[in-house]
Write a structure and sequence with these properties.
CATH superfamily: Hotdog Thioesterase
Strand content: 25-35%
Order of helices and strands: HHHEEHEEEE
GO molecular function: fatty acyl-CoA hydrolase activity
Strand order of the largest sheet: 1-2-4-5-6-3
CATH class: Alpha Beta
Structural class: alpha+beta
Protein name: PaaI family thioesterase
Family: Belongs to the thioesterase PaaI family.
InterPro entries: ACOT13, HotDog_dom_sf, PAAI_dom, Thioestr_dom
Number of helices: 4
Largest sheet: 6 strands, antiparallel
CATH architecture: Roll
Organism: Aeromicrobium endophyticum
Shape: globular
Low-confidence stretches: none
Distance between the termini: 57 Å
Number of domains: 1
Amino acid sequence: MTEPSEHSKTITWVDPRPQAALALTMSGLDYLRAILAGEIPGAPIASHINMDFVSVETGVVVMGATPDESHYNPIGAVHGGFFATLLDSVCGCAVQTTLPAGTAYTSLDLNVSFLRGITVDTGRVVATGRVTKPGSRAAFVEADIKDADGRLLATATSTCLVFPAG
């Protein structure tokens, strides 16, 4: 057995509380478009899995993420939490694009189906979240992750609670 080599990773982020307060003053679509444009810092979780917005439209959000070895589980593949974090993010943000100012959401459930494994050799993956039924109390979403060749890696469904903020 070879001697393991130690690696390190530095993660930086901006305090999310001021942006969270700002989000309540804007429509969800405007808020996420401002993040996409670099006018507002993104969520700190994005730093952990190298995640960023690709596109934001009403009811549809696309994000990319690039796995590295720090995302591996003990059996040498990207941990399911990487998949779940990416899928939960696109689902929640897709719902957010449908919300008016002063309205918030939170995930009630996330059901993930893992179809193929991810390793660092997979490279950048892209997740798409699509609202299937918006609502004033609950919203329903579906999502998927694909690799650069368009192969389906995972799917998810989610329900989000929608409520007035404050």
